[in-house]
Design a protein that fits this description.
This protein is α+β, with helices and mostly antiparallel strands. The protein contains 2 helices and 8 strands. The strands form 2 sheets. Strands 1-3-6-5 form a 4-stranded antiparallel sheet, with no helix packed on it. Strand 7 and strand 8 form a beta hairpin. The chain starts with a helix and ends in an 11-residue tail after the last strand.
């Protein structure tokens, strides 16, 4: 019995140690270069930098269409692609650029507001893009007086 255990032990020791090869010899330099290139490309992301994140139309009459432009610059190191722009309601319509914005280039996001609502109105625009955060939040606001009413507006 002792001989069998000793023989099995020696055989298994030879079997497990004979398969060990130098692990570093299995690494292909082409794969290392390709992985480094892929990792470097993954670090390249666009950054959307807006001149302003909020626009105040002030006091407007109800039903008066308004328009503003949010200017931004791609301060990242990859092309910026805006995939979607949605507002918090149907009374606000964002119109983003369709083409990619190269690093260092600027673009404009036009926003139309139909002037609906009453009193203080605030709407948000969510811009979805290939940035690290994935989305940016913009805001418009206005004090809407009812049509034909005397201008009230906020007290300053």
């Amino acid at each position: 019995m002792k001989k069998i255990v000793l023989i099995v032990g020696l055989v298994s020791m030879v079997a497990f140690t004979s398969c060990k090869e130098n692990a570093s010899s299995k690494i292909k330099s082409d794969n290392v270069a390709e992985a480094a290139e892929r990792d470097e490309a993954a670090k390249a992301v666009p950054v959307m930098s807006f001149e302003k994140a909020e626009h105040d139309f002030g006091t407007i009459e109800q039903g008066t269409p308004q328009e503003t432009v949010f200017k931004f610059t791609n301060t990242g190191n990859a092309p910026l692609i805006i995939t979607d722009a949605k507002s918090s309601c149907g009374c606000t319509v964002p119109n983003p650029p369709k083409d990619p914005i190269a690093p260092g280039e600027s673009g404009e996001l036009k926003v139309n507001f139909n002037g609906s609502g009453q009193n203080q109105v605030t709407k948000t625009i969510t811009v979805t893009a290939n940035t690290e955060k994935g989305s940016e939040l913009l805001r418009i606001k206005a004090f809407v007086n009812p049509k034909g009413a005397a201008p009230l507006g906020p007290v300053k």
